[in-house]
Design brief:
Chain lengths: 245, 190
């Protein structure tokens, strides 16, 4: 029996079952064999310990490099100023490129393809009622005739005296048509939160406002809510969501 | 990063180039730290644990305890890391709230339950051995490390290090062990 081979196979993880029996037997009966095994086994642990120390030192080095990077890459001469300017220019350039090309989204086209005036479904403007000189009538007339500035003015006044979901919704529409996106978005949100009759419509126009304002993530989220709601423009919302994503 | 990692094999890991070590370290670091943050240890402790988990993972690759990469490297690092975090919390005697159940820590994830987790501190005899090992020639240290740590066979050592035959490797190994023994004896009995 080759004792050296047994030890070799043990340390190479390739003892056969039979060899393992012989190995165990020798460990009990042969003191020299056990002594040699202990020596090699100790050596194995010592090397492992040493290698662990080495690896840990390397990792600490990697960690230090990660933390040192910003300091290392900025030279201390006048080049620094230029380097910074160049980086900023590059960032803006890349950002602009990414915005326009890589994202592959033409927000204006998406908006134009999908936006349609929401009809006045609230206030019946009929000939017979021409004598009605109320703010409300005037506001809806302005809305229907696309006189957005006037519509905004009138709906705002109405909102102060007679705040309702309808007024908020049509005021938001007027803001959107007048390209005042911030105001439109906040009002549409208001309507959505009221969870009334116009909530799904408001979600659709809110999504369009976000698209026009290039707020992709918000647009995606409100479209998802609209699809889940399923009461209004579900198919259109789904295809718009596809294009955005 | 994910794709790069998917291509890393056990063989690559065993070769252990510094470039690869760094790549694996960096590509799993943030994910690990984000995962560890929920346990309320300090950021330094988390980094220390990440490094220890990495060392343990590597040692088990080298010792052949990990026979195949059945999951991504990060899965192994997370499992080992979790064990180390809980171990540290036990040692710190941190108050444990209902969020994490320490009793479950004993059964570590299946994937790593055969791993050697503890880095046992060396006995006096081993410390001495370590000193003498460090005083061996570079060739001897390299050869013994390839065999006892990296799990290279005699034939693999012959091929990797351009020895003329397996017998040359075997006798070189025996000579290195003999020198090491002599160093210890001289030191012990002089």
């Amino acid at each position: 029996m080759d004792k050296e081979l047994l030890l070799y196979n043990y340390f190479s993880n390739q003892l056969t079952v039979q060899e393992e029996q012989q190995f165990n037997e020798l460990m009990k009966t042969d003191m020299d064999f056990k002594k040699q095994f202990d020596f090699e086994n100790n050596l194995k642990q010592v090397i492992r310990d040493k290698e662990s120390d080495n690896l840990k030192a390397k990792l600490i080095g990697f960690e230090k490099e990660i933390n040192d990077v910003p300091v290392k890459t900025i030279p201390r001469t006048n080049y620094r100023k230029w380097a910074m300017a160049a980086s900023v220019a590059l960032l803006i350039g890349l950002g602009w490129l990414g915005y326009n090309n890589f994202s592959g989204t033409d927000y204006n086209a998406l908006y134009n393809d999908n936006f349609q005036d929401y009809p006045n479904t609230v206030y019946a403007i009929t000939r017979g009622a021409e004598t009605d000189s109320s703010f409300e009538r005037a506001a809806y007339v302005a809305y229907e005739t696309n006189d957005n500035t006037k519509a905004i003015e009138l709906f705002t006044e109405l909102k102060e005296t007679y705040d309702s979901e309808n007024v908020s919704f049509y005021l938001a529409q007027s803001y959107l048509k007048n390209n005042q996106l911030g105001e439109a978005i906040s009002l549409f949100n208001e309507v959505v939160e009221e969870r009334g009759e116009f909530a799904p419509q408001a979600l659709w126009y809110l999504s369009l406002s976000y698209i026009k304002d290039k707020q992709k993530q918000n647009a995606i989220e409100s479209l998802k809510l609209l699809i889940a709601d399923a009461r209004y423009k579900k198919t259109e919302a789904e295809s718009l969501l596809d294009e955005l994503e | 990063m994910e794709n790069i990692q998917a291509e890393i094999t056990l063989e690559d890991l065993r070769k252990g180039s510094d470039h690869l070590l760094k790549q694996v370290y960096e590509s799993n670091r943030l994910k690990f730290l984000n995962f560890a943050r929920r346990y309320n240890l300090s950021e330094e402790e988390n980094i220390d644990i990440y490094q220890d988990a990495y060392v343990i993972f590597y040692n088990n690759v080298m010792s052949g305890k990990l026979e195949s990469l059945s999951s991504s490297i990060s899965t192994y690092l997370f499992s080992i890391g979790k064990y180390l975090i809980f171990d540290k919390m036990r040692k710190n005697k941190k108050v444990v709230t209902g969020d994490y159940d320490l009793s479950r820590v004993e059964d570590t994830d299946e994937k790593v339950n055969t791993f050697d987790m503890e880095s046992q501190s060396l006995t006096t005899e081993q410390v001495l051995l370590k000193t003498h090992f460090g005083s061996l020639g570079d060739k001897c240290q390299e050869l013994l490390t390839l065999f006892y740590y990296r799990g290279f066979t005699i034939q693999e050592i012959m091929e990797a290090k351009n020895y003329n035959s397996e017998n040359v490797v075997k006798s070189a190994k025996s000579r290195c062990l003999k020198t090491l023994k002599e160093k210890i004896q001289t030191n012990t009995y002089s």
